[in-house]
């Protein structure tokens, strides 16, 4: 089936190119001063004639000069030979297999977000009402131990009463803690010597009120969140890195973060690399930690990030040079004298327009980067013809 498709491909495109070749001047022996040994079909060296004409595909025959016979005879096994005029018409271009550095610098975009590890939710564990609300606006800055609000709760008052009249029910102080009172509130209760109708709630950390869910006098159900306090001393930068570049990064890799609007620059290292990639954006999340000094960088800002990686030299070819078939990846090698042959290769990573070659090629070899599809089809066709001949097929004859 593969041979049939290749043959059809060559027939359709080869005939069209062959028609175009008719307008080119004939390369006769008289014009070049060299003696023509025979005439051959451009896409089938097995079809030979002693005079100009056309191949079965309708293409003009091209001359083979006596000086070229030795090079054609010495062509490597499995190679096909294409006349230089025809390779030029096909737009065949080649490149050298070289060592290229992968992963020198990786650029990506990130977004500054609050560090959720420095976030504290202030909840109540009994039903009640907010009496006094001291921290009454998002953005209010508080210090650890500052009064946030006072709270009226019958259940909490009962627990306080039990504590004061003799700890009759189990560990009364522990019950107070389970009802949401902290050490400072319990200390106030002990000092006052009477239950607190308005139980005080204090800031557990230094920070900023980032979420406020109540107003003064609001009723709150058991387990309700009154507010959230965020410590902004450190912030996160979540960076979307293309999946192809994630492999060059590791925890501890250095990074430079730039805020485009202000020009502020921060140096840091990778704190964490998420294990799951985004299937839509084809990116992986990389997390950085920055000190949040003088209000910069502000959460919600977008930043430019450059990762400084240790570059690694790898044998590579342009990504478009690699062809993929049923037997695996291969390239078309330029073996000289207008001859080309397919070479099976084992590929590695693909990045920056290059594909790593793990085996099959060595540095300095030349491979086809443009026009390789036609050459590959011709190579497949030659393989099909050889198979037919071995099974008793008819040759074109000379």
Would you give an account of this structure?
With 398 residues, the protein is an alpha+beta fold. Among the domains are: 105-115 and 233-310, Elongation Factor Tu (Ef-tu), domain 3 (Beta Barrel), CATH 2.40.30.170; 125-223, Beta Barrel (OB fold (Dihydrolipoamide Acetyltransferase, E2P)), CATH 2.40.50.100. It is 22% helix and 40% strand. It is built from nine helices and 27 strands. The protein has helices at 2-21, 29-32, 69-73, 84-90, 154-164, 172-178, 183-192, 243-246, 372-390; strands spanning 36-41, 44-49, 62-65, 80-81, 93-96, 98-102, 105-114, 119-123, 128-133, 141-142, 147-152, 199-202, 207-212, 219-220, 225-230, 234-242, 254-258, 265-278, 283-291, 302-308, 312-318, 323-325, 328-336, 339-344, 346-351, 354-359, 366-370. A six-stranded antiparallel barrel has the order 7-16-19-18-17-20. A four-stranded antiparallel sheet has the order 4-24-23-22, with helices on one face. It has a four-stranded antiparallel sheet with strand order 6-21-26-25, with no helix packed on it. Strand 22 (323-325) and strand 23 form a beta hairpin. Helix 1 (2-21) crosses helix 9 and helix 5 (154-164) runs antiparallel to helix 6. The longest helix is centred in the first third of the chain and has 20 residues, at 2-21. The two termini are 28 Å apart. Mean pLDDT is 80; it is low at 1-31 and 384-398.
